[in-house]
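User: Hello! I'm new to structural biology and keep hearing that structure can be predicted from sequence alone. Could you demonstrate with Universal stress protein? Please show me the input and the output so I can see what each looks like.

Assistant: Of course. The first part below is the input, the amino acid sequence of Universal stress protein. The second part is the output, the predicted structure written as tokens.
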Amino acid sequence: MTIRSMLVATDLSVQDRWTLQRAWHIARAHGATVRLMYLPPAGQPMAATAAARLAQTVRELEQAHGLRVQVVAVRQEQSFDDLVAQARGADLVVLPHRRERSTAAFFRGQPVLRLLRSAGRPVLVLRRATNEHYRRILVAVDLLPGSAALVQFAADLEERAGLEIFHAVGTREEAVLRSAEAAEKVVRAYRAGRLRRAQERLVTLSDSFTARRNRVLAMAGRGDPGRQAVVQQERSRADLVVLGKGRSSAWGDFFCGSVAHRVLSWGSSDVLVVPDAHLQASAQVAPRRIHEPSRPALALSTIGRRAP
């Protein structure tokens, strides 16, 4: 992954200034050009001094961090569509965490999900007020072919961070077996087989990143992927969760939900969501397929209990 340009949106609040320190750290680490955009919360009027304050913020950043910062011109009616237009030219979009309460958010999803559908760029949602680098990153994978590219994306974002690859085995198939009145012994055997296969594929995936400075852990859980990712993030104290996002419609997300929506709603860490289409476009050919079993890894453990 190469980050040459970043779009950072802010409402210039005190909370945003602290939160966006993380964005400056990422930009400095990657030598990326930053475009800073003023975007007030939905339903709130634009600050009269927004342009002047944005220019002042840019001067402070350039002096304090040596960043190359460009200002997105402040318009009288700055809108979500302006954000989408600017995001399409960025390698990474950085937003402060906001929960919008509106009819559009109810039916079409929160701004982050709408941005992912419209712009198709990786979006980093910042919650934590700190200027330190990420120490532990949890990568939630579905073990499909794009998983290796997602882990690589996370590894490249912060090379010093410890990586933890996590996969939650769903329970829907078990419910189907129970509804068909399968014996409990059959259900348990089916569950054990799925966990074993998930472990083998996680080990193979983690083995491909053994050259990193920090070791890569592989963890398997059981239950709803979104809820289990949040539970594992809290357990491991990861300060960033990275996950992919498949192509979906607003109605699809509304009726079926998504892992990204649940992690953004329930989690407490920063969240990086990478569209699957972006990974497919930028992924390199993997040296080994993740479907091939490998030797057991010492860092592998299984979480068998479900979230409360």
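User: So the tokens describe the shape?

Assistant: Right, they're a compact way of writing down the 3D structure. Reading them back into a model, for example: The first helix runs from residue 14 to 19.
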